[in-house]
Amino acid sequence: MNFEPVVLFFVLGVVAGLLRSDLKIPGSIYEALSIFILLAIGLKGGVELAKHPVGDLVLPGLIIVLVGAIIPLVAFPVLRYIGRMSRADSASIAAHYGSVSVVTFSVGITLLGQEMLEFEGYLIVFLVLLEIPALMIGVILARHGQGKVRWGKLMHEVFFGKSIYLLAGGLVIGFVAGAEGIKPLDKLFFDLFKGVLALFLLEMGLVASTRIAALREYGVFLAGFAMLMPIFSASLGIITGWMLGFSVGGTFLLGTLFASASYIAAPAAMRIAVPEANPALSIGASLGMTFPFNIFLGIPIYLWMAKTIHAS
Amino acid sequence: MSAHPMLLLTILSESVLEDILIDEIMALGAKGYTISEARGRGTHGVRTGKWTAGGNIRIEVLGDNALCSKIVQRLQAEYERDYGLLMFTCPVELQN
Q1: B14-25 pLDDT, tens per residue?
Q2: Contact criterion met (CB < 8 Å) for A275 and B82
Q3: Which of A127, A136, A206, B1 has its CA 20 to 30 A from that of A158?
Q4: B49:A210 CB<8 A
């Protein structure tokens, strides 16, 4: 099994939270760390994007977004009819799973670095692109033509919420500046990335520990869903990446991207758009279960899957 | 020095509603408001403020009885069912 030691910082945070240590990451530091990670990932994607003729990426991009839209459409009936959850809860959770997690993706990238595997850097663009259809499908499923939707407010939350805004902004700056132009910033944004990710994971562990304590309330079904759904989504991503001719690293990252579930952008958007859904269920599943599952077990499994499909 | 009797309306709700509630309050005729971040526990569970969208806000508005009850009725009708929302007033004397 491939193992990325940076995830141990997550464990450190979880243990501190469960044992009620007085360890706290101040809110403003957490904000600064998340801004750093979003910008760094965006810049990296923009630099890679500048190396490719953008026209060549339109068709694979469209395919990836369309296949990505299958995830919430599969998750919804599973939650609604097998899990017997309410329409609003099913739709909100489906949107969380269709949407993506930047930190899970970042852990995937650091594992590739350790394995010395290359990847198609422009995949970072899909961190932005996959978010939008997933959230819209979630809202449409929840409403089913009934009730009013604050579409304007929702769209504002999606596009100008800090995660999409900073990722997209970083992409544009990286794209305009190119590898040479970004060089003076390399030391800050790229060399320090793993260290900042470690601190961020420590904080995520602290937060997740408050969710893990409440896991018993969610029931066996949701726990099973939170671990099986990412494997299904990752398989979808890995097959898509392989068929599009991506490298092993790119195939693995697309699988990781599909497998990840959002816990920053989606909760805020769903709280506005589908207020009757219980946020404890969706955040508990995505942050309390799927996120740790992905970084500890999922990511090594997806890498193995990507290597296997390329070897066949 | 003349002191004007007024009501201080305090609204405790979810951070995610900040912009929406402010728009409502201003549209109903409030002259201003004060917002602070808050944490706590209520019937909607523990709000630790440890997560971006997981915190609470406290909005304070000064106004006469008519304004405060307009705001309370509006927010109650629109947001009470789905969101954590607690509102109370207390009489105050404005000193300037």
Answers
A1: 888 888 899 999
A2: yes
A3: A206
A4: no
Domain ranges of chain A: 27-307
CB A130 within 8 A of CB A236: no
Domain B4-94 of CATH type 2.60.40.60:
no
- What digits encode the pLDDT tens for the residues A96-120? 999 999 999 999 999 999 889 999 8
Residue identified by tokens 């309306």 is: B9
**Domain limits of chain B?**
4-94
Cβ of A268 and B49 within 8 Å?
A: no
pTM of the full predicted structure? 0.85
Does the beta-carbon distance from B83 to A283 stay under 8 Å? no
Instruction: Given the cut 0.90, state whether the ipTM is greater than it.
Output: no
At residue A221's C-alpha, the angle toward residues A7 and A228, to 5°, is 50
pLDDT one digit per residue (tens) for chain B, 96 residues: 456 789 999 999 988 888 889 999 999 999 999 999 888 777 766 555 555 556 789 999 999 999 999 999 999 998 888 888 999 999 999 888
Q: Give how far Cα A239 sits from Cα of A290, B69, B75, Å.
A: 21, 59, 49
Is there a contact between A267 and B14 if contact means CB atoms under 8 Å apart?
A: no
Q: Which chain B residues have a beta carbon less than 8 Å from that of A267?
A: 53
Out of B45, B50, B52, closest to residue A268 by CB: B52
Fold (topology level) of A27-307: Na+/H+ antiporter like fold (1.20.1530)
β-strand partners of B38: B56
